[in-house]
């Protein structure tokens, strides 16, 4: 154990380097009777706390901004740190202590938003095989288009509400006139005569496109906009977190935050234009994806497969007689074969279902990619370019030292010297050199 004399000697040396201005030291009378081991823990702990706080304050204050070169070097150092963290958040490279806070992991939060977008698109892209095109939709077909129309009466249900008769089917017909004042669509029975003897039971492209556009694609716009708005909100919030984490002058911090926010706002309009263009493209349905044929075949054969499963008791190893198979097939195709128009309606629903299964997945993939290439990456480039073109005049405004800064820098520098000198003395006492 150290002697009281050693304790007093150490306290005197710590006081000589000025530690007593920042850390409370034992009185001389106490130091003459207290061993060093009982004094040091409190002194060491307080010295470390003061040393860390002093370094943080100096880091925020920065070195004296005495010349344009020093100001630009300091500015670019902070810009590089900002860009590193922005790019790390976007790419998911969380190799900075800044990302220890999970709220700062932008890529993960964007991924959550994209998953919600995918779910929303899938929900509005489900094709009901028995549903028909409701001509009350705000978008009216053009003359010559083939559409599904309701040919029944209005009835009153048990609740006293007037509804369309649920027992009456929709049927296909051709638009012959559109009333511009009331948006009513008038049709004639041309379609049946034109297609009754056709060898290819299919729908002309305008009908298919009308239904895909009016019932499904137009509903993609809201989830798409919601994803964009969430992306914009997350980016704005992330920029604020990044600039707020930087140890620099408050004016510089505010300037960088303002520049980044301005870049995001200016790019948002162009990004929305690109998103709307993609929606317009999807309104003209087309695909080269071979999966379309596979899905369509699966939809066509699904009713028959279900009946075969019932016949076999859901056991593929079950032996079934040829007679039973023939009876099932005959019953199946008898049920499927109604009027020519019914066949066309079923074929249309199958084709739309197959197309939407392919197109919705394509759309879900394309939108996040487009946001990245037309919004996020241009934002990073814009911030980098804007920073490199910052004038000396602007740097003088955000980095110039005032009288208070100079005085604070001198005070903190003196405090740092005293604390580091005291730290050296304490370490020398705790870990004396063997030589």
Structure description:
This protein is mainly alpha-helical. It has 2 domains: 4-64 and 401-430, no CATH class; 74-132 and 202-398, Four Helix Bundle (Hemerythrin (Met), subunit A) (Up-down Bundle). The protein has 14 helices and 5 strands. The strands form 2 sheets. The chain has a 3-stranded antiparallel sheet. A two-stranded antiparallel sheet has the order 2-3. It is elongated and about 110 Å long.
Number of helices: 14
Determine the N-to-C terminus distance.
Answer: 20 Å
- Give the overall shape: elongated
CATH topology of the largest domain: Four Helix Bundle (Hemerythrin (Met), subunit A)
Low-confidence stretches: 130-139, 189-204
Proportion of residues in β-strands: 5-15%
Give the second-level CATH assignment, the architecture of the largest domain: Up-down Bundle
What fraction, in percent, of the residue positions are helical?
55-70%
Order of helix and strand elements from N to C terminus:
HHHHHEEEEEHHHHHHHHH
The major β-sheet equals:
3 strands, antiparallel
Under CATH at level 1, the class of the largest domain stands as Mainly Alpha
* Computed CA radius of gyration, to the nearest angstrom: 38 Å
Number of domains: 2
By CATH, the superfamily of the largest domain comes out as Dynamin, middle domain
Which strands sit side by side, in order, in the main sheet?
Answer: 1-4-5
Mean pLDDT: 75
What is the number of beta strands?
5
Class computed from helices, strands and strand pairing = mainly alpha
């Amino acid at each position: 154990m150290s002697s009281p004399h050693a304790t007093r000697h150490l306290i005197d040396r710590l006081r000589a380097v000025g530690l007593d201005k920042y850390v409370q030291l034992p009185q001389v009378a106490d130091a003459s009777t207290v061993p060093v081991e009982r004094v040091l823990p409190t002194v060491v702990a307080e010295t470390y706390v003061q040393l860390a706080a002093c370094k943080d304050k100096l880091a925020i204050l920065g070195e004296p901004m005495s010349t344009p070169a020093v100001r630009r070097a300091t500015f670019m150092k902070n810009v590089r740190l900002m860009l590193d963290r922005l790019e790390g958040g976007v790419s998911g490279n969380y190799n900075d202590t800044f990302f220890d806070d999970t709220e700062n992991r932008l890529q993960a939060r964007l991924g959550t938003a994209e998953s919600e977008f995918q779910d929303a698109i899938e929900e509005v892209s489900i094709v009901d095989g028995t549903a028909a095109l409701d001509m009350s939709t705000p978008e009216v077909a053009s003359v010559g288009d083939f559409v599904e129309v309701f040919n029944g009466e209005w009835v009153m249900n048990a609740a006293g509400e007037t509804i369309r008769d649920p027992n009456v089917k929709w049927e296909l017909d051709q638009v012959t006139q559109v009333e511009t004042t009331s948006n009513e669509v008038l049709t004639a029975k041309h379609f049946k005569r034109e297609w009754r003897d056709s060898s290819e039971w299919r729908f002309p492209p305008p009908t298919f496109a009308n239904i895909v556009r009016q019932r499904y694609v137009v509903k993609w716009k809201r989830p798409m906009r919601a994803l964009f708005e969430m992306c914009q909100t997350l980016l704005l919030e992330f920029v604020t977190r990044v600039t707020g984490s930087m140890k620099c002058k408050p004016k510089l911090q505010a300037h960088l935050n303002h520049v980044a926010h301005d870049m995001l706002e200016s790019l948002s309009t162009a990004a929305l234009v690109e998103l709307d263009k993609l929606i317009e493209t999807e309104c003209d349905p087309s695909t080269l994806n071979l999966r379309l044929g596979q899905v369509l075949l699966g939809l066509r054969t699904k009713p028959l497969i279900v009946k075969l499963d019932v016949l076999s008791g859901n056991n593929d190893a079950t032996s079934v007689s040829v007679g039973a198979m023939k009876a099932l097939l005959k019953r199946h195709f008898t049920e499927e074969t109604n009027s020519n128009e019914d066949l066309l309606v079923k074929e249309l629903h199958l084709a739309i279902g197959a197309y939407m299964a392919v197109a919705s997945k394509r759309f879900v993939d394309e939108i996040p990619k487009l946001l990245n290439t037309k919004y996020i990456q241009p934002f990073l480039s814009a911030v980098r370019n804007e920073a490199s073109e910052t004038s000396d005049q602007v740097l003088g405004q955000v980095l110039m030292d005032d009288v208070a800064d100079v005085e604070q820098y001198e005070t903190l520098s003196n405090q740092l010297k005293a604390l580091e000198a005291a730290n050296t003395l304490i370490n020398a006492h705790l870990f004396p050199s063997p030589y």
